[in-house]
Fold this sequence. Notes:
The chain is mostly helical. The protein has four domains: 3-191, no CATH class; 219-298, no CATH class; 312-357; 372-445. The protein has 18 helices and no strands. It has helices at 22-32, 37-51, 75-88, 121-130, 202-214, 223-234, 237-246, 264-274, 278-283, 285-298, 312-328, 337-344, 348-354, 359-386, 389-392, 401-412, 416-431, 433-445. α6 packs parallel to α10, α14 packs across α16 (401-412) and α16 (401-412) packs across α17. The longest helix is centred in the C-terminal third of the chain and has 28 residues, at 359-386. The termini are far apart.
Amino acid sequence: MTTTDYLPIQPIGLGTIEVEAFGSVLCRMAQAHSVSVYTLAMHLRHWWKRSHLGDDRAKLNIVNGINPMLCGYGPNIDAYLDIVKEATGCEAIERTTFLALKGALDPNGHGVIRPDRAWCPACLEEAHLSGEQFYDRLAWATKAIRRCPIHKLSLSTKCPSCHATQLHYHHLGAMDLCFKCKSPLRTVAEAWVVIPEPQLYERECLDLVGKISAGELRIAPNAYSVFITTFAEYLSPLGKKISRFAYKAPRRPQLAREGRPPRLDTLLRRCAAFGVSPADVLSDPEGTAKSACLLEFARLDLPATAKPRRAAELVELARRRLESELDEARIDAIPSLRQIARDVGVSTGFLNFHFPDLIPKYSVLRKTNSKRSIQRSRDSALAFLLAGPVFEYPSPEFSSQDRLVEATVERTGIGVRAARLAVKAALKQRFGAKSYEKYRKRRRRDPTAKWPPCD
């Protein structure tokens, strides 16, 4: 087979932050071959099987997957990229996905791409007026990008006609049409929402997309862990102490997470805290950690005095309050740890630090009290129903089980779900468990079946 079997569709916007998403490339490829997206997927699958005997990577049809833009870095995306790359001869197709982050971030890809389509309404309108091909950008697929970096407009996610979230592409690959009602996705300018200020982590995410689009992102082994560890090692003991007063610096990874790659939002959050680029962290973690350390000390204002310590009387007051709550063990209401901390004038961390012997006992007491309170509410609801309402059902006052539930909630104050369970238990006691189960099975077969049976 040669690469002329399929038209060589080249991604749009390579080398810029407006690089096309992989799912958008597939849609344009389907339109160029005058077939639906699903049909194109079947063609590619059979073509790969004929030319690669024994390779079953094409057996999954990821076009019907959860994410419509198909630009993550999972194993299915990796296999599909190889198929499209060989079919079209386009070596740069990988730049339309986040495959370059594979191995550097969470292996499951959590938080990398959003579950639906998002697009800029101004970009869609400009493409329509100029007659150019509208396409989805790779940056729009991330959760961190909430506005168009060009037009400063909030990204749209729903059809203006049927208000359906765009969970898939149009079956014929028309990116300006709703996949559900087939109506245009264009909206009037009056409905556009302007976001003039940059959103959180927007700059860091766009920098990462730009490096991927240009093919300049090179991932160092264990990049994030090396960056965090190196930064901590560069700080002197004094620096580690005073840095807590300057900014919320990321702590060293815990032993349980030592060496594990982070999620994308964690990487962006840490880079924003240090003021460094995520691309630099991934490509040169040691050098970036040194630069971040020097930058932080350059802008660091040392505190004039250390944080004042809590008085010993306050510690004793908090202990007496916890011990009194444990001794009284009231069933009606046991205050939460946050409430006790607020009353004493400290934080919950203060209580956890100073009273490691009392806090576990108090947590067990709170949990036991909660279970007793729930059971007592259920018993009172069941007693209320068995006192009369369930034996009056059906009647003008209690014409349905929903009316029984409403009366139980109104009289006893429990939640709707607990009231439904109480009504179910009361009906079983009145009519018997076997009759109730028979009715449920009959109701599954015939939703119009009447119940309860006549006495």
